[in-house]
């Protein structure tokens, strides 16, 4: 009897302990449109302040009403310490989501983002999420001048599975074998939204990347850095580092570029999208810093939509014979420049005409300033 009472007391204590540490998190969407599959950041220090003894292996987030578990990820940005708790939820227009923090082991979540260095394919760095895939070119490509390319490449997808490894392994990624393909032609352009200095009416391409560093790898966010060797850019000798972040559920990368070699001088830059010979549909919205393109039909491969946008103002936009260009300036003394680039494929079924794609781009531009608010009670 005494033993049973003791066990009951321990169980009751553990129950009260869990109840005592359970917190409520309220997330609010300020946008007048729904935000499906949104990845939200919560500073880890904020959560630790409310639950000092929280352990990464022994808590989970659940919807307060349905008790369904919410996917999470711990973001370190390549360091040893957790900086943010990432979670993915759906929001209605101007809606709120209430979550409970439960002291219990969390589940294993589907991988929705992925990226890696690809030494078996001329130093590619490829990355993807459940919507789209991209790659950038490394130094090994320079040994084959006929294949040389400067810009961002896109691999279209019609599946939410991670497909990069499968495509490289089978070596037939220029064919659509049921999950998409690589039919995008970059060449000696900025491709699908790369960035470069622009001086004396000239784009000074940084070429292929020289080194890479993976910072975070799924399941909800993949981020990495690409570093570029010094090159001549007009009157400057520059080096560049690009930090690229891709979340689950989005068609857009966040790109932060940092240049060294001109810190005390304003640096004009351009973001570019390669233009096709046949007529396409364009949006050059200088007021909102949105540049978008709905490509012409590419035979049986379908149609691709592309875009760049930024919270920073642009000085102008124009269309050259080769590219759509969005011009901006990095102020003297600035530590970097942040913008977004991305793409879609009509054969994936989500965006099947120019109007739908352009509307989606504008909504994602609005998200930059319309941050999800977080309250921990």
What is the strand and helix layout of this fold?
Layout: H1 2-21, E1 24-28, E2 35-43, H2 44-50, E3 60-63, E4 72-75, E5 84-91, E6 96-102, E7 113-118, E8 124-129, E9 133-136, E10 153-157, H3 164-170, E11 180-181, E12 192-199, E13 202-203, E14 211-217, E15 221-233, E16 236-247, E17 252-260, E18 267-274, E19 281-285, E20 290-294, E21 304-309, E22 316-319, E23 323-330, E24 337-345, H4 354-367, E25 373-376
Antiparallel strand pairs: 1-6, 1-25, 2-5, 3-6, 4-5, 7-8, 8-9, 9-10, 10-11, 12-13, 12-18, 14-15, 15-16, 16-17, 17-24, 18-23, 19-20, 20-21, 21-24, 22-23
What radius of gyration results from the CA coordinates? 23 Å
CATH class group of the largest domain: Mainly Beta
Q: Which percent range describes the beta-strand content?
A: 35-45%
- Secondary-structure element sequence? HEEHEEEEEEEEHEEEEEEEEEEEEEEHE
In CATH terms, what is the architecture of the largest domain? Answer: Distorted Sandwich
Low-confidence stretches: 4-21
End-to-end CA span: 40 Å
Number of domains: 2
What is the number of E strands?
Answer: 25
Work out the helix count. 4
Q: Approximately how much helix is present in the residues?
A: 10-25%
Envelope shape: globular
Overall structural class, as computed from helix and strand content, comes to: mainly beta
Determine the mean pLDDT.
93
Notes on the structure:
The protein is mainly β and 377 residues long. The protein folds into two domains: 88 residues, Golgi alpha-mannosidase II (Immunoglobulin-like, Sandwich); 255 residues, Beta-galactosidase, Chain A, domain 5. The chain contains four helices and 25 strands. The longest helix is centred in the first third of the chain and has 20 residues. The two termini are 40 Å apart.
